[in-house]
What we know:
By secondary structure, the protein is α+β, with helices and mostly antiparallel strands.
Amino acid sequence: MKKLLKFLSITGIIVTFAMMAACTDSGTDKEDPTPTPNPEPENPKPELTYSMSVAQKAVNPSDATFELSTENILSYAYVVQAKDDAMEVVPEFVLATGITGTCDEGGKTLVTVSKLMPESSYIVKFVGIQSNEEFYKDVIPVEITTGKFNGEVTFFNVDYRSVSVNIQLPEGAIKEGNVV
C-alpha cells in the first residue's frame, strides 16, 4: 500500500508540473513588442471655433437690451455691476452668480437686462458657455448709462409682486415746501 501511495504522489506531482509547463508562455506566439500606430480616422472631427460678441441695442431708464452674436456657444451668463463699484471678475464668478440664458440657434440672441436705476452707469459682464464643462475664456464687459424718465409719472420694474414709480415734480415745488 505504501508503494501505491508513493507512486500516486509522484505521478500527481509529475502531472501537476506538466500542466503548469503547458500553461506558461513558450515564447513562440508572442506579439511584436513595438505596437503599430493607430491609423488616422477616415473622417476626423473638425475642430470647432468659438466666438462671442456683444452689441448694445437699446438703453432705457430702467433696462437695456443687448444682441449677442455667437458661434458654437450654447448659453450665456451675465452679471451687472455699478460702474463705481465694478470689480474684475473671472468667468467662473459670472457663471456661479450671474443670470443665465440659452443662445438662439441662428447665432443672434437678444438679452434684456432689467431692474436698473435711471441716470446710473453700469458695467454688464457676459460669459459664453460652450458645453457642460467648458466656457468661453473671455469675460466681455459692456458699459452703459441709463437715461432719464420722460413722463411726470412713470411705472417701471413691474413684476407680479412689486412695482417702482418715478414721479417728476414741477420746478420749485420742493423750494416752496409743497412736497409731503
